[in-house]
Amino acid sequence: MSGNLTWDISSGRILFFRRPFHEYSMRGRVMLSQIPLAITAGLTAVLMLMFFPGTLANPLFIAFMVTQVLILGVCYFTPWDRLPYASFLAIPFLDFVSIALGREGGQESLTGISLLAVFPAIWLCASGIYPRTALLMSFLAPLCIIWVPLFVRGDVTGQDLAKSLLLPVMMLGIGVSVSVLTLSMVRQQRDLEEKDAQLRIALEDSKRQERLLNSVLETVHLGVLAVDADGHDILMNRKQRENHRLAAPAGNSDPNESQLLVFQPDRITKVPVEERPVRRAVLGENFTDNLVWLGSGSEQRAITTSARAMRDHDGAFAGSVIVFSDVTDLVNALAAKDDFVANVSHEFRTPLTSILGYVELLLDDGEELQDSHREPLNIIRRNSERLLGLVSDLLASRSGQLIVSPQAVNVAELVRSSVSAALPRAAAAKVRLHAEAPERLEAHVDSARMSQVLDNLVSNAIKYSPNGGDVVVSLGSEGSELVCHVSDSGMGMSEKDQAEVFKKFFRTGNVRNTSIPGVGLGLSISKAIVEAHGGSIQLRSALGEGTTFTVKVPV
Fold first, then answer.
1. CB 514 within 8 A of CB 382
2. Taking the model in full, what pTM does it have?
């Protein structure tokens, strides 16, 4: 039971308070079970004193009152916790005897005293111990309270015995009801205890996971922010709090999203509020490596942001997680590298141009130039042109922008010219090179730039077929696109290398371990040229089986 009686001595009131019955000590539970009968017996004595004072002189009634006081004392002073658990069941049996004395001593004055047997009967049936015996006693004990005196007096008739059966039957009915309710409550209590134990375990696991998550979030050198569907912060780690303070304007300790100092990659232009990382994440957008600058002045930092939306069980948007990574050192290093490449390239270009100019002058003076000097000069010119081309590639790579001037061009002729120019190199490498192109296929492209792409792809195909093989350059059209395939049967590339091949200065592991020359800029520049035409370049490759590059540009 959840509401139990206790006596407030200071105020003299009986208080009801909410506390589960099983949480009391064994002594407390025995006392709480006996108090209802003790109080009722006390009220019976008061009624006798007020209206039937003569009954108080009856020895049997006095024995009833004394035994009730003694039983209450036994309930309080007995160390029930040290005795066998079922030992407290002796109390309801003593109550039956006490009630029998009270009935005989006071029934002529106050009828219905035998109904007090309901209290010990309920106690026995509610205990849940020996339920069948308890039900049997809930019937036999009231029956004995009535029948035993009849037999003792010797005036027993069938009619008297029949009249007294109603009370035991009623007690049995009450006992059955109490037993059923008790059994149901015990089962519910066990289920609740099991669920409570499971919930406690789950809660402890949840707390342990929460502590682990907090430790991880506070340890990583990444800013992590989680927001709900309405944009309210639900989680922010230490690093992100630092980022937030960095982006806060001077004098504003708690700015909103629109007030934060968030700049575009030029470090000057503010990012519009609707394009800021958190706002985009709140709108349910997923993105990766979005670069912004936070703060101002010398403390400004480069931050890449990524966001992933969270979904509930129904698939509805429930919030988003945004990760902020400080890449200032990397951005500065890349800028320093680009500046170095640009400066060195500019420094190389001037002397190389001068060398080529003087070599051309010497070669043009054909009458005075000896044949033994012409070949070394041609070698100087060829290598100088190669160096100048490399410098041009470095400068183009540094700028990141390629200007194209499209015009109507017979791309088939560009393919044939590129293949013809590469034939001597292919023959030296024992590579069979041929073109598959129609007589004429026009497109609006920059002829010089597209020739540069074709030369790069054909040169790579020959270069990376060190053991000979076949290189095929095929040209055709698909719908409104011009499609060119450059295939070789060379060394091929792994999947990991294919993902990196278009990056600046990248060279595959196989190539780095050989003597094949190159700096890893040709494919990067080719990709930039093709994309400047509004097209795309892709590859398909397998180690030891060769590589195929596919270039598509709008016709």
1. no
2. 0.47
